[in-house]
Write a structure and sequence with these properties.
heterodimer, A: 113 residues, mainly beta, four-stranded antiparallel β-sheet, B: 115 residues, seven-stranded mixed β-sheet, 11 strands
Chain lengths: 113, 115
């Protein structure tokens, strides 16, 4: 069955420290991959996407993600987090022809001073 | 460009009633998708419309329906509301187009509470 897994439900990180959020997917072929962020009471904002090509993609707000086909992973990273990065982060995938996004359960990030 | 707008933002309904939610996509976008977000089930795809046609559908009962108008605005309707329908309903728009997947841009959502 097709699935998206975000193994970490909650991560706490100190301001200025690095952050890595994990995402694994299970699909027959390489899907299109996305990371979204949701602040409390808000909709989802697209951070970055991978369709093809360079496996390291840059996004907004200083985030980047690396696609690893051998590990079926698309992990999100940020070298130095800011207090404003506290939010819930969702990994999402879409099969190449289908249009619906399948989301992981999300990872809540808490930033401590 | 203005973003995706959803109305109303908050709604309280009674079990058994029906509700209609509205979504206006980004100008020029022809695809509108709807998602349900709950603490227990997370984000789940409801359906997607492109050029007034339902192109894709998730695993929800027939009580959930939608439509799209010629100006790409979309509505979703839930009939015979149940307590479990309480959720944040998110609308997303994308340029659409045959054979390609575009990133989706989300609205702020409509918070539906069923009592």
């Amino acid at each position: 069955a097709q699935s998206v897994t975000q193994p970490d439900i909650h991560i706490t990180v100190s301001e200025g420290a690095s952050l890595e959020l994990r995402c694994n997917y299970s699909y027959g072929a390489t899907p299109y991959l996305f990371w979204y962020v949701q602040s409390p009471g808000q909709g989802l904002q697209l951070l970055l996407k991978y369709f093809s090509g360079d496996t390291l993609v840059q996004g907004i707000k200083g985030f980047e993600a690396e696609f690893k086909r051998s590990q079926s992973s698309f992990n999100l990273r940020k070298p130095s987090v800011h207090w404003s990065d506290a939010a819930e982060y969702f990994c999402a995938v879409a099969p190449s022809i289908d249009y619906k996004l399948s989301f992981g359960a999300g990872t809540t990030v808490t930033v401590r001073a | 460009k203005a973003g995706v707008t959803q109305t109303p933002r908050y709604l309280i309904k009674t079990r058994g009633q029906q509700v209609t939610l509205s979504c206006s996509p980004i100008s020029g976008h022809r695809s509108v998708s709807w998602y349900q977000q709950t603490p227990g089930q997370g984000l789940q795809f409801l359906f997607e419309y492109f050029s007034e046609t339902q192109r894709n559908k998730g695993n929800f009962p027939g009580r959930f329906s939608g439509r799209q108008f010629s100006n790409s605005r979309s509505e979703m309707n839930v009939s015979t509301l149940e307590l479990g329908d309480s959720a944040l309903y998110l609308c997303a728009s994308s340029p659409g187009g045959s054979g390609l997947v575009y990133e989706q841009y989300f609205g702020p959502g409509t918070r539906l509470t069923v009592t």
